[in-house]
Amino acid sequence: MMLLENNENGYNCFVYVEKWRDFMKVLIGGYTKKTSKGIYEFNFIGADEYAHLENSKNIIEVGGPTYFQKDDNLVFAVTNAGDKGGVSVFKAGANGYEKVDEYLTPGSSPAYIGINRNKHLLYTANYHTGVINVFSYSEDGKLALLASDTHTAKSIGPRPEQADGPHPHFFDETPAGNLVCCDLGNDTVDFYKFDGKKLTLAASYKNEAGFGDRHIAFSKDGNYFYVAGELSSKVNLVKFDENTWKFEDIATYSTIPSDWDQHNGVAAIRISKDGRFLYVSNRGNDSIVVFAINDDHTLKLVQRISTFGEFPRDFNWDKSEKYVVAANQNSDNATLYLRNSDDGTLSPIQKDIQVPEGTRVEFEE
């Protein structure tokens, strides 16, 4: 649209401004150990370099929503309820979000929730208890536990973070509709068949000792996967076949500079929809590293950019993948970037967005 403005000399001039996108929201949840009350909502205002987040408000009050998923008017949030942990379901209504169901068990809460919105299925991975679960949910958000499995110490790694046993950190679907779990304690990627009632281990891929498998992303063609190693600060590229369960270790890439000698832990990993770029967050180096994906699926470093805060556990983008938000857990802030779809690079357009203890980012459109 065209706006008529006065310039510094008092003359009228026309300035072109793209219509602001005031229909989009950004949700950020995280720990509630300090000041956070749960999940916060921001209005996404503007476009291109004028885009920004504003009007933060706490829309769901819940303990420790370090990960959550959204399906229309339902939010499924990791919940820490004192000596119990699990999943709580909130439904949006005229008066805001109300809790409609929860599934809690003694002990710690899960670290991850995956979702299949078409099948109405949820997948949870519990880092501390070693348990992975499959739930179904109704249109009203009612949960039903369908299947469960408990990881054992079959190949515990040498690092201190692995000494106390298995640590499932991710549980979700593969390109062919099987299920996959990353186990940080065992340094494994475990693949499961699910028949609607029972989980059956189909195959396991073993990373190098101390790799610390955290999250995984699959190539656009479904024939390769990239494992994010939290403890090693590496990404491992693997070719695989979901019919024969054969694996081929192709290459491993560092996410941190060669001269980095301080603590770092890799966290989130994502691949753009066009399959051309891979993004990983570094907690310690406090950056997002951008790799170009070559035709043979190998990686080429494109950019390593600051998150302008401390400990970026998660980042995410809108449906167009034009805007990226990274949440910095320890510095209680977030950063908004513009993403260049041609070369994959990120450009910060808003820094120091105040949000307490953020660990999970989700766009709502």
Describe, in plain words, how this protein is organized in 3D:
There is one protein chain. Strand 11 (121-125) and strand 12 (131-137) form a beta hairpin. The protein has a four-stranded antiparallel β-sheet, with no helix packed on it. Strands 6-7-8-9 form a four-stranded antiparallel β-sheet, with no helix packed on it. It has a domain at 66-254: Methylamine Dehydrogenase, Chain H. The protein has no helices and 30 strands. By secondary structure, the protein is mainly β. One of its GO terms (cellular component) is cytosol. It holds the Pfam family Lactonase. This is Isomerase. GO terms for molecular function: 6-phosphogluconolactonase activity; isomerase activity. InterPro entries: Cycloisomerase_2, Haem_d1_sf, Lactonase_7-beta_prop, WD40/YVTN_repeat-like_dom_sf.
CATH class wording of the domain at 66-254:
Mainly Beta
Biggest sheet statistics: 4 strands, antiparallel
- At CATH level 3, the topology of the domain at 66-254 is Methylamine Dehydrogenase, Chain H
Order of helices and strands: EEEEEEEEEEEEEEEEEEEEEEEEEEEEEE
Global outline: globular
Secondary-structure arrangement, i.e. CATH architecture of the domain at 66-254: 7 Propeller
- Give the amount of beta strand, in percent: over 45%
